[in-house]
C-alpha cells in the first residue's frame, strides 16, 4: 500500500511540475515607466522677483512654503512627473564673506549626497549673459540629480536643485532628468538680474 501511495505522490508531483504550458514559457522583460515628454515651449517668469528667466510651459511656478524659506524662493513644479526645481535666491550685498559663505553652504548641500551618489560631476558653464554657472550632476539613488549655482558676485546669488517626489528609481527617471536638465540650462541662459 505504501508503495502505491509513493508512486501516486510522485506522479502527482511530476504532473504538477511539468505541463505543456511550461515548455513554452518565456520570461517577461523588465518593465520601466513610460514618460511622454512634450515639446518644450518657454514663457517668461513674471517680474515679481529680483531675477527673471524663461521656464517650460508644462511647469508651474509655486512659492516655497518651507518654514525657513525666504520671499524670493520658488519651486518650478512639473506636476506630471512629480518633480520640482527648487530655487533659492539670496542678495550678496557686495559682501565677499557673505558670498563665500553661500557658496560653501551650496557645496556642502551637494556633498551630502556622497553617501548614495556613485558619481558627482561639476561643470562650469559660460552663460549667454557672460556670467558663469556651476552645474553639478549627481548619479546614483540620490534625492537631487541636478544642482546649480550662479552669481554676479556682488549683488545676486541663485541656487537650484532638482527633486522628485516619487519612489521610482533614478535610472528609470533618466529621460525626465535629462528633459528637466535642458530646461535648467535654458533657465540659466535666459537669466537676467532685475535691479
Give the tags.
two-stranded antiparallel sheet, alpha+beta, elongated, seven-stranded antiparallel β-sheet, 29% helix, 195 residues
Number of strands: 11
Q: In order across it, which strands form the biggest sheet?
A: 4-5-6-10-9-8-7
Structural class: alpha+beta
Please state roughly what percent of the residues sit in beta strands, choosing from under 5%, 5-15%, 15-25%, 25-35%, 35-45% or over 45%: 25-35%
Arithmetic mean pLDDT: 87
Gyration radius, rounded: 26 Å
H/I helix tally: 4
What spatial form do the alpha-carbon principal axes imply? elongated
- Unreliable runs: none
Helix and strand element order: HHEEEEEEHEEEEHE
Helix percent band: 25-40%
Walk me through the topology.
Elements: H1 2-17, H2 20-23, E1 42-44, E2 51-52, E3 54-56, E4 60-63, E5 74-78, E6 83-91, H3 96-111, E7 117-126, E8 132-140, E9 144-151, E10 156-164, H4 170-190, E11 192-193
Antiparallel strand pairs: 1-3, 2-11, 4-5, 5-6, 6-10, 7-8, 8-9, 9-10
Overall description:
The chain is about 30% helix and about 35% strand. It is of the alpha+beta class and about 200 residues long. Strands 4-5-6-10-9-8-7 form a seven-stranded antiparallel beta sheet, sandwiched between helices. The model has no long low-confidence stretch (mean pLDDT about 85).
What would a concise description of this structure say?
The chain has 195 residues and is of the alpha+beta class. It has helices at residues 2-17, 20-23, 96-111, 170-190, and strands at 42-44, 51-52, 54-56, 60-63, 74-78, 83-91, 117-126, 132-140, 144-151, 156-164, 192-193.
Amino acid at each position: 500500500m505504501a508503495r502505491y501511495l509513493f508512486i501516486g505522490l510522485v506522479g502527482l508531483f511530476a504532473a504538477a511540475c511539468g505541463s505543456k504550458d511550461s515548455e513554452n514559457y518565456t520570461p517577461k522583460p523588465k518593465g520601466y515607466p513610460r514618460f511622454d515628454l512634450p515639446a518644450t515651449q518657454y514663457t517668461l517668469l513674471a517680474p515679481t522677483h529680483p531675477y527673471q528667466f524663461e521656464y517650460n510651459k508644462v511647469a508651474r511656478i509655486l512659492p516655497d512654503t518651507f518654514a525657513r524659506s525666504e520671499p524670493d524662493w520658488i519651486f518650478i513644479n512639473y506636476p506630471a512627473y512629480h518633480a520640482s526645481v527648487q530655487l533659492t535666491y539670496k542678495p550678496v550685498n557686495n559682501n565677499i564673506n557673505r558670498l563665500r559663505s553661500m557658496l560653501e553652504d551650496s557645496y556642502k548641500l551637494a556633498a551630502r549626497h556622497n553617501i548614495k551618489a556613485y558619481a558627482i560631476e561639476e561643470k562650469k558653464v559660460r552663460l549667454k549673459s557672460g556670467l558663469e554657472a556651476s552645474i553639478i550632476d549627481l548619479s546614483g539613488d540620490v534625492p537631487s540629480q541636478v544642482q546649480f549655482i550662479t552669481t554676479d558676485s556682488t549683488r545676486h546669488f541663485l541656487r537650484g536643485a532638482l527633486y522628485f517626489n516619487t519612489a521610482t528609481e533614478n535610472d528609470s527617471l533618466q529621460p525626465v532628468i535629462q528633459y528637466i536638465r535642458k530646461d535648467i540650462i535654458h533657465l540659466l541662459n535666459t537669466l537676467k538680474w532685475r535691479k
